[in-house]
């Protein structure tokens, strides 16, 4: 018999075998038999194959028997049953003028944070800005001072990129430690941002040779102001007007904000109104009295802009519970202000032994990267850990390693590994508590 005849015979024999194998292996899981009189032959066939009692077969739910709701809604909303995926206000902050809320990391999948769940940080509340009246000025050490409307900004060539933003206080070095992934590290989110390259605007204005810094200022009541090196401004900084395909939300800086990829969150100035080109940094309150890293010798680091390599297991994580024994999957996110994540290692014994997790595509520059890793749990106590490595070779440190360098008074830029403890009953708690 020639090869073509053998292949045809194999194909003919493979079809019924595949069907029988599918029915035998998956019929019990799907349990599809009682799905209505119209499908009774299929139901009887599956019931015969898997030998399920009639009372264990799928019944027809109420919503399958009735017409659904209308499709025409001005703006889509999540299911009413998804009550856990909401931002949480930090419990210690009662005043609305200086507050933040965290993204529910333990409820999210993938790398894109929905706009309504993107973390918030405000220093004087959320201003109510009319975009028709808003203006952005570029001036200082430039050949020409420029004043733009929002519409004029949108007329420049656009750029869309996916990047994370993370608050430099995510999380504090100090207790109390949070219970959930959101409470531990919920001040990080990731989105696709659309806007115009800051380089384009600076070239439009013309930079003078002595231009070394850009002082960005917001239009909120705090006039949030930060100094950004000119090299960074000419590299990958954007003036953005859209997030995940729609216009910025008010709490995210509507109608214009700065996006400074990889740098600490407060440098991504919201409600952007002014870009002042200077020869020196401004040394504002937010880069001297605040957002500086105290060291063990009492001095502080100057301009610690970049958010270092970091990872977090989001499932299972604090307040989750394993309800069955056997094979499970660790899921989490990793990110680095220096570039791409190249590897994530995970541990089930508190860091004594490590194995490599699988990175989920896409792996992007200065964006969240999802990772997954299998593990087995049979009722024993475990401590789950993850550590990320970025393309510079930097390895995420443990809390002990970080405090040995920084001391115990440091507050910002905590990128230490985060342990989660699985108890013998399956309850998951913060392993640092």
Question: What fraction, in percent, of the residue positions are helical?
Answer: 10-25%
Total number of strands = 24
Strand order across the largest sheet: 5-4-13-8-9
CATH T-level fold name of the largest domain:
Sulfite Oxidase, Chain A, domain 2
Any guess at the CATH architecture of the largest domain? Alpha-Beta Complex
Radius of gyration: 27 Å
Number of helices: 7
What structural class do helix, strand and pairing data support? alpha+beta
Keywords:
single chain, 433 residues, alpha+beta, Sulfite Oxidase, Chain A, domain 2, Immunoglobulin-like, 3 domains, 5-stranded mixed β-sheet, 5-stranded antiparallel β-sheet, 24 strands, 28% strand, sulfite oxidase activity
Describe the structure.
The chain contains seven helices and 24 strands. The protein is α+β, with helices and mostly antiparallel strands and 433 residues long. The longest helix is centred in the N-terminal third of the chain and has 28 residues. Helices cover 16% and strands 28% of the residues. It is globular. The chain has a five-stranded mixed sheet with strand order 5-4-13-8-9. Strands 6, 7, 10, 11 and 12 form a five-stranded antiparallel sheet that branches. It has three domains: 62 residues, no CATH class; 213 residues, Sulfite Oxidase, Chain A, domain 2, CATH 3.90.420; 121 residues, Immunoglobulin-like (Sandwich), CATH 2.60.40.650. Helix 1 packs across helix 2.
